[in-house]
Amino acid sequence: MNADALRSIKQDMAHHVHPQSNLRQHAEQGPLMITHGKGVFIYDSEGREIIDGFSGLGCVSLGYNNERLVNAAIRQMNTLPFAPTFYNRSHPRVAELGERLIDMAPSGMNRVMFQCSGSEANDTAIKLLWYTNTARGEPQRRKIIGRVRGYHGNTIATVSLSGQPHMHAKFGLPLPEFKHTELPNYYRFHIDGESEEEFSGRMAAKFEELILAEGPETVAAFFAEPAISGGGALMPPEGYWREMQAVLRKYDIKLLADEVVCGFGRTGNMWGSQTWGLEPDMVSCAKALSAAFFPISALMFKDALYADMIKNSDEVGTFGHGYTYAGHPVGAAVSLEALDIYDEIDLVGQVRRVSKRFLENCHAMADHPLVAEVRGVGLFCGFELMKDAKAREPFDPAWKVGELVQNFAHDRGLYLRAIGDRMSFMPPLIINEDEIDIATERFKGALDDAWAVIKAKM
Ligand SMILES: Cc1ncc(COP(=O)(O)O)c(C=O)c1O
């Protein structure tokens, strides 16, 4: 390792506290220092070339070098590096981005607000629901339902809504207004002999039970990722969204589709909502909106909700919500360029083309002794690792099998993410078939390496 890399690591260990990290491990081993990237590859401080099989954090859609995005940022920085969107002020790029997003949005969205992260988009949505429910004379409709293992962000409200126990522990969370319904992992939780459709019906019945127990008149909305990402790349079972939406309609409960990961092509359609037939009332997006070249997010919703916002704004005199960098001109310019590129390269067509090879290769690993289930769509695939696939017996969590595979994959030059014993594989959307072959070969090698260790323990 060269002197620069050593200095960076020393600086980082001395002062930088890392989010979502094992702090003890950081103190003892230091960080993995990534120095640069190109295409689907990232490079660490030891000069190792690694295929990014997790798109950074599910956000680097166009890879790590893109002159057009860079130039869009520079042009905008030279023209107008900042302009507030508070106090009835605007600038051309954010107006254009709003129109562009609404033109492409699913399910009749007509209004958009901007923020800097997925968390802020979802947090804004929660506030808007509370705000507008007072305008509708239903101030008691404050409860928001998420799912066990769902993920919607890390503000106090959005992490409360997320079903991630390690993000609640010691923080005194979740807040009481946030409830969680079942995780629709068919493979893990179906009863013997139960079909996917039947399982989905049971999930919806459980959901209805929760709504009735809480009181339907107190429930504002259900927030859900079309396919669960941070909870382990979990695709919904057959019939799930049809059944869940029937319950929502029955009790007049709103649906927010969290498209922070699924949006912009990941699932082989522009939106995950299109892949699985969701008809949301609100849509949040972030990450690939700017291809991860600038932090920006958006919350879209329908005119009906906007009408209630106007009512309250009239009464109070202003709509009292917003962030300094909402609709940042550079973020808007970079996002517009990203959307242009998506059109020009036919992003959805590209994902559909290469996902054939991607999913074929993924499914070819299904009979590996560590792998119990492979399920994916587009460039988004989850792998369940189990001690006994048939009996659905998990490994002892202390064996950290997922982490072992992740580490072996890194050694072989592939970044994969382990979520417990589920592996999430979601490369940049510009990946080509040769790179897919190399990545999946490395994945398979990592499974073999891990199996050699695990077999000896069994
Ligand atoms: C589905 C989903 N929603 C929301 C978020 C939060 O986004 P951010 O980290 O930009 O706040 C994430 C982050 O991974 C996510 O996966």
UniProtKB/TrEMBL annotation:
The keyword Transferase applies. Its cofactor is pyridoxal 5'-phosphate. Keywords: Aminotransferase, Pyridoxal phosphate, Pyruvate, Transferase. The keyword Membrane does not apply. It comes from the Bacteria. SUPFAM superfamilies: PLP-dependent transferases. Pfam families: Aminotran_3. PANTHER family: AMINOTRANSFERASE, AMINOTRANSFERASE CLASS-III. Belongs to the class-III pyridoxal-phosphate-dependent aminotransferase family. This is Taurine--pyruvate aminotransferase. It comes from Roseovarius albus. The gene is tpa_2.
